[in-house]
Design goal:
12 helices, 8-stranded mixed sheet, alpha/beta, 16 strands
């Protein structure tokens, strides 16, 4: 099994959780926290006779992380290691380590508030601050302080502001790991580019090919429509260079997502939304092209409806995207925006709890008698 930077502090993580029930872990992209920390907690017996649950921000991350851990342990997925996402579960009576998406975990907490069969809950990539993740942490902390003092909580992220989370968890310890094992050369535009985004992506791909690209390219785009336009713009280049041109977003069937992320003998250009931003290592990626954009969920006070707007990502998200290229070898990241643009961006995105309508979660909590 390949050594990863996080491995050096696994004994310290286990020792800390034996002394204190809560822990915050900061580990830069590529450290290996998602696939190494949860099984280490299970093997150390920190869950007792119960399970270790790992909260992931997206279905793709939950499935791929569970599969990677099962492969590293030479097991079939669904035995000791499993996952559960909306409308899909790969687990069995022997499952002790379970990767779940945020909505699944919150609903499990609402239907079974004491989760007696769970000994450790790991909240991965918490910096994204999704509403369901914030709710889950609040409910878990309340449960720990009332009916389950034996429950252990671990919060992990690459770009997390750790101090506020550690204070919320009772001034718990914070541990830091080294970053990725390989350097990533990052380049910005010299001046803003007014061309359509698809043309900018095609130009960046053309440049990488001209400079001797020797691996896969991961392109970050805001949504499925932008991915389709970029596919059309890059189709000729990909055909001439003998590259696979593959989309990757949350609405694709699982089989098509797997095709995009699995190793291939043929080089690939993967056109992805931010589903590949965290928790996913795509072997073979040596270059990232970052549009600097994403679709951000918010709430319209005028219509009362949720909305998705294309917006500039934060510096923390940009760092996450850059880190996709430094996982298995040295890499490059071409950012389709200037250094001045990057410096003017916020350090982190605003938490969803500040942007979304809270009526639905409030009603869910009230219906579960969790609001006084």
């Amino acid at each position: 099994m390949q050594a990863l930077p996080i491995d050096s502090i696994l004994p310290e993580i286990v020792a800390s959780l034996r002394r204190s029930p809560n822990l915050v872990i900061e580990a830069p992209p590529g450290a290996g926290k998602t696939t190494r920390v949860p099984p280490a907690l299970l093997d150390a017996g920190l869950a007792g006779e119960g399970e270790v649950w790992v909260l992931e921000p997206r279905r793709l991350a939950a499935r791929l992380s569970a599969r990677r851990v099962a492969e590293e342990r030479c097991e079939r997925l669904g035995e000791t290691i499993g996952y559960q996402v909306r409308f899909e579960e790969m687990a069995g009576p022997r499952t002790r380590l379970r990767f779940l998406t945020e909505g699944v975990l919150t609903r499990r907490l609402l239907s079974d508030p004491k989760i007696k069969n769970v000994g450790v809950v790991v909240l991965d990539e918490f910096h994204e601050r999704h509403l369901q993740a914030d709710m889950a942490l609040a409910l878990l902390r309340r449960l720990q302080q009332t009916a389950r003092p034996d429950l252990r909580l671990v919060v992990m992220s690459a770009t997390l502001e750790a101090a506020p989370i550690a204070r919320f968890l009772g001034d718990c310890p914070t541990l830091c790991a080294e970053g990725r094992r390989f350097e990533v050369e990052t380049e910005h535009l010299a001046r803003p580019d007014d061309r359509p985004l698809a043309e900018q992506v095609a130009a960046a791909v053309r440049r990488l090919l001209a400079e001797g690209l020797d691996g896969d390219v991961l392109v970050f785009l805001p949504g499925a429509s932008e991915i389709r336009r970029a596919q059309a713009a890059c189709a000729g280049l990909a055909s001439q260079a003998g590259l696979l041109l593959l989309p990757l977003h949350g609405e694709l069937p699982a089989a098509e997502q797997d095709t995009a992320v699995r190793p291939s003998e043929q080089r690939k250009i993967i056109l992805s939304t931010n589903v590949a931003e965290t928790s996913v290592t795509i072997d073979g990626v040596v270059a990232v092209i970052d549009s600097g954009l994403a679709r951000i969920a918010s709430h319209s006070p005028w219509s009362g409806l949720p909305q998705l707007n294309v917006a500039r990502i934060s510096r923390a998200s940009a760092a996450q995207r850059t880190g996709r290229a430094g996982r298995t070898r040295p890499g490059r990241c071409l950012r389709l925006y200037t250094t001045q643009d990057f410096a003017a961006r916020p350090e982190h995105e605003a938490p969803e709890i500040q942007r979304l309508d809270l009526a639905e979660p409030a009603l869910e909590l009230h219906a579960a008698a969790l609001v006084i």
